[in-house]
Each structure stands twice: as structure tokens, then as C-alpha cells.
User: Fold these one by one.
Assistant:
Number 1:
Amino acid sequence: MSEKNYITKKNKYLPKLADWLKARGSDDKMIPFSCEFEQKLFDMSDEDAAKYCEENATRSAMPRIIKTGYHALQLVHFFTAGADEVRGWTVKKETPAPKAAGTIHTDFEKNFIAGERRPRETLTPREGGRGGPRGKQHACVPPTCVCLLACAPNRWWCSRGVPLR
């Protein structure tokens, strides 16, 4: 849809499309979107984009599209944190811990020991808090932190995963 239609939230096809979705008995979500508007925001600095959205009493549809897509595909993501970097990983919801660890590195899946559930605020594997070992059948369900323990010859790895909502 055009930028003008997106900002005014008026388009002659939106009600027809909504009626069509209802007639199908579908609970699919309809998210109005303007490529023109999103491109304009993308080309602006963060401050200018926020100001432009405030002036026009609207906001980007991208966060909603991403969250809805993740939900529809039943995906969750988690982060691993090391001394020098933080990385994000995506897995299917309810993925067993060894398989989730395998997305980081195949050795993690092959040599998986246990998944240890920790409170979200806990970023190191052995700091206090509730939790404890969950074993190989632990499923990745947000918003928990899971310390994935795996071993290899002469090495121990611990990767802290923090799934988002």
C-alpha cells in the first residue's frame, strides 16, 4: 500500500481482504504494510525515524511482521554469550536441548551432557538461583536461560542461551 494510505490507515482493499479472510474461517493475521514508508524509515537515522513516526502518529510494521512470522513458524531464538561476542541462534519451539546445542556446533550435539535451566537474569552457569540439570530431554521454551553442557577431548564448553519472547 502507499505511504499515504499506510499513515492514514485507509485503503479500499483492506476491508475486502479482511472480509475474505473471515469468510475462509481463517485466523490468519493481516498486517498492513507500506514498502515506501519502511524504505523511508530505513534510510533515516534512528532519531529522525522516531520523530517522523511521532509526527505522523504511526510506527513501522517490521517488528510486528517479524514477531508474527516467528510465532506462525513456531520459532524461538536464543543467544550465546562469550567473553568477546554475543550471537543469536534460531530453533523450532520445543526443540530438545541437544538438538538446539547442535545448531551452535555439531560437536555440541554429539557430546551433549545436560541442559541446565537458570533464571533469565543469570548470565553465568554457576551463579545462584533456581534451576538445575534438566538432562537431554529439556526443551527450549522461552523465556528461560539454559546452560548447555557438552564435552570434547580435553575441553569443556558452556554456552548460555537466553531465548527471547
Number 2:
Amino acid sequence: MKAKICPRMRLLPRWIGPAALLLALAACAGAGAPASSPGLVATNSAASAASKPAVASTSAAPASSKPAVSVVAASSNVAGSAGAKAAPKPSAIISAAPAGSASGGPATKITICIPSRSTTTLPAFAAQQGGLLQAQHLDATFPYFAGAQVDAAMAAGQCNMEMAAGAVGPLLQGVDMRMVAVTLNRSPFQIWGQPKLSSIADLKGGTLADSGPGSLSWRIGRYYLQLNHLTADKDVALTSTGADTVTIAALVAGRVDAAVLNFPGYLQAQQRGMKLLYKPPAGLRFVSQGIATSGPYLAQHRDIMRNVVKSVVDSMTRMKSDSNFYAAELNKYTGLSLDPAAVQTYWKTDTASYNIPPRSDHQSAVAALSLYSDTSRGQNLDAIANRWLDMSIVNELYPASS
């Protein structure tokens, strides 16, 4: 039986106003898991024992070896099964050998799915490679599913959790999803265009690139156009190019007029002579990125989720205070090799957005869900937000000051 996955979302209704702004994420998990990891918990009847996770984790390097990153081609590590025909294949499976070693027995293997190899997901990778997850006796691998494909992977049972801004589609279909930590509480996207353009209004009759249908950049791009009285696919043609590196290449080559870019993509676009066309209002707050899992997985493995949240926050805290650690982890994760001046620019810009502690509120959750009002079919977003945003672990680890 095919797993229920997030469908392609239709265009945002024109009547949504600015107060409705914003994003999303969450995660769901299906049934079955590798024998060495906690079982992925079924979230609906479509996920069954027949749908074993199709992702095979790569083994970490021996403790005595130099910390390294292993990026394995998906075709050699994804074995389809009769129960997982609809499951997407990851573009890569990223495995990092943690520094040092932890005592107290073997580590529990976990799978954290990501929608991009970018700065927004870097804290989870740095928590693994920097030994913070290992200190909690956890060993993570990171299957990479471009854009909205991470939602399909969660629904197909290929992840214990995700660090992403997706899976709201399954949430709105009734799947029990929980956002347990919000690492980014604002929009990370900007629109950058060809030097000949002066503003977003000049995009009328042109093309705007995003990472893929249903992805966060896909939705945010449409929303930004709407805020500026432009209609996607009517006034501006939308085209999906994939990861930021591909999108920037298309922009610089002139194959598209503009692109929806995350950091550091927009910084790279600036360095290539592109022009800023639109930046979201300062002070805007909403659920944008974080750690999410399914309700059943959270109930059965709360200790694991608690340790993951703590490790990721410790990772952000260390990167925020140590530019050398940030630069080293960024290089290992993305391949970027920066000169000292660029390191300082990346470090200051990126870590300034870290939401520490990773707490958000009901209003921000509703704002995120409102981006999906075209698929919510009149559902009560307040009630859904109450179920979706679960700050109980964050409140345990980082009690709010009275």
C-alpha cells in the first residue's frame, strides 16, 4: 500500500493579506526502521510494516580516524520495496564521523531528514560531527531530499525526525505532527535578480526561480509576489531549479530573471553582481525552521527527542560564539572554503538568526500554517497550531524566566 504523501500545493489565494504571512514545518514518521535504530512510528494506516525505510545509513568512521563527512550517492543506498514504491529517493545520504568517543555503550542510530544542505540545517550536522549527539549516545545520518520531497520521505517512514520547514501538508491531512523546537523564527528568504532590474515590480513578464513545487521557497516566492501586487504564473512565470547552487547558476547565466534565495545563497548572488529586489519586513516572526517528528514517535522516544534538541541548541550556541568552529563545520557540510573576511561575514549574518532557546508561540505557528490555507479547506488553524507546536521539551530544557 502506498504511503500518504504531501501533494503538490496549488497557488495561494489572492485574498490572503499580509497578516497571514508565513511558513511551516513539522514532521511525521511511518512504520519500520533499521534494526539498530528506534522504530519509526506509523502515523496513518498507509504506513505499515511493509514500508521499511528505504534509506540505508552509511557507517561512521572508526573513533580513531579523522572526523570526516561521507556523502553517498542515493542510488547505491536506497533499496525500494513493495511497500515503499511512492517513497522518494534522497539526493544523498550524509554521514559524519563524530569527534572523540562516548562511553556507556553503543550509540542509538537515528535518521534526521533535511531538505537542503544549507546553513539552516547546519546546526544538526554540526551537532553530529562535533560530537554533541555522540555525547548523548546518538549517531545520526542525514538523508537529503530536495525541497518538498522531505515531506514525502517523512510520510513514507524514511525519517525519525526532520530539520526542515515542511510536512505541513501531511499535518493538514490529519497526520499527527509535532514541532518540538523552532531554530529559525523568521523568513530566511530574499528575492535577488538581474542587475538590469530595479525592484520586484520589474519582474512582471519575467521569470522567478525557486527550489521546487511545495517547497518553502516555492510558497514564500508566491507570497512575496502577492504582497507586491503580482500574481504568480500570470504576471511572473515560476520555474523550479533545485538547490541554491543550481538556482544561482541559472540566475547568473541569465536563464531566469530572479530567484528566491536563502542565506548564504543571496550573499553569493550579491558577490556575482546580482541585485536585491525584495527583503521581508524586519521584525517578522513566524515558525520557519526547526526539529519536528510525529506524535507517536515523540511519545515513544521522548528521551531521544530531548537529547536531539539539546544537542542542536548546544551546536548553535557553540557556533554563535566560535567563528572557527562555524567555518569548519560549514566547510565540511557545504564544501564552502572561505577567506577570513568572508568567514566573519557568514558567521555574523547566519548566527544572528539563531533562535536560542528554540521557542516559538501560537501566533507564529498560525502564521506559518496560513501559508497553506489553499489546502486547509476551512480547517481551524488555531486548533491545528495548538496540536502542532509542542514546546514542552524546550520548556523543560530552557525554562522561561518569570
Number 3:
Amino acid sequence: MSKGKMFALAIALMVTPGLVTMASQSSQANSAKQASQTDSHSKDKMTLHHETGKVGSLAADELVLDYTWRGKERKTAFTLNSNTKKEGNVEKGDRVMVYYHFENGHRIATELKAMAAIPKTEANKS
């Protein structure tokens, strides 16, 4: 074996453990970073969602929203409580936007906003 090849082999053997160590440290740092991000997300404010549709039914503690999603008629129930803000007069048949979050598998309405009715045009009259 020539001196050049032996020298290259020696260098490769010296550098390889350092690269492995660096890769291992980088992997551990990424794992720690992901764990801290997961912890911070769980401490963040609950994710707020919204849905728009017509009020199908309305009680003191529940609102059922009728809407169309992907061409299918849907009904979704939302729990109302003393913290639910109501913007405008909301009655059965009115078009509303519901802001909500999930809590213990239930949709908890945080805000109801009355919206203007969609005017019917010749194209969408039925």
C-alpha cells in the first residue's frame, strides 16, 4: 500500500469517531428540542375553531348548527355556558358563526356572532 493511501486511511479512521459523536449529539439536541416544544404546546391556550351555518335549535345550554360540508348536510351541537359571548340577537334559523374549542370531547362555544343572511340569487334559489 502506498504512503498516500495509508495516510488517507489514517485520517479517515481519526475523523470517523468525531463525526459519529457529532451526529449523536445533534440527534440528542433535536430530541430535547422537540420535547420542549411539545411541553410548550400543551401549556398554550386551547386551539380555537369556528363554524358557520344556521341555528337548527337553541336552548340555554346548547346550540345545534346546521351547515353543509363537502356537499353534505351536517348538524353539530355546541355547549353554551356563562362564558359564551353572544354578539347580536341569535334565534332559530339565523345564520351565525360559532367560535369554539374542544374540552373533554365536547365543543364548547366561546362566542356566537349573528351574521347577515345570504341573499338568494336566481342561480341558487330552490
